[in-house]
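Usage

Read records sequentially. Each one opens with the input sequence:
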Amino acid sequence: MTFTKKNIATFLAILFHVCGLIGILYTPYTNWFIQNTPLNLCLMAILLVWTQPGKKFSFFLFFAISFLVGMGTEMIGVNTGWLFGEYAYGDILGPTFNGVPWLIGLNWFVVVFCSGSIMVHVQDWFKRRFTNEESDMPSQVAAISLVIDGALLATFFDWIMEPVAMKLGFWQWQGSAPPFYNYLCWFIISALLLVLYRSLSFTKPNHFAVHLFIIQVLFFLALRAFL
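and closes with the structure output:
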């Protein structure tokens, strides 16, 4: 294995998530591993930025807007219930601003960026296939697919994560489960951010983003099954 940024970052992501999974499920130090969730989230975001090819101003602009939109919409949700539903954050995710942990804004960037990157890789595969068949993917189809399918991926990730997050004390819903309205808001907000993602002129394919999304989905699926 060559020591590329992608390979190093993927190794670290697998290492931290496997250790976290084992620590939470099979050791007497469950609370310690849960309390260090912010460290894991911060490291994954740092690795994502580190592996991003051709870091342009527009990439960091997307980072900043995703963070601010994530924080803003979550603050509206927590304090009014107008977005997502009635819920409140615990103290696991660290310092908060107006009831929302700063890490939540970071998580919005990571989830939406990874979802967009996956769709770019999928479309690149289709484009190569269409090129071999002497045809091309219509640009309008590509644009709609990236936004809609990418938003569905982001919403799917939230659906996978929700039961685990509640058990670990990240946040709690007023009812026993998140309402459908939560997922509707996730889809709409993710779609709007993916419109911005597509329109900004930074390098879109990021192989580590694809790997990170898969690693995190498998991590939460395992916790959902065995926790």
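Summary fields computed downstream for this record:
- Residues 102-132 form the longest helix (31 residues).
- The helical segments are 5-26, 30-35, 37-51, 57-80, 102-132, 139-168, 180-199, 207-226.
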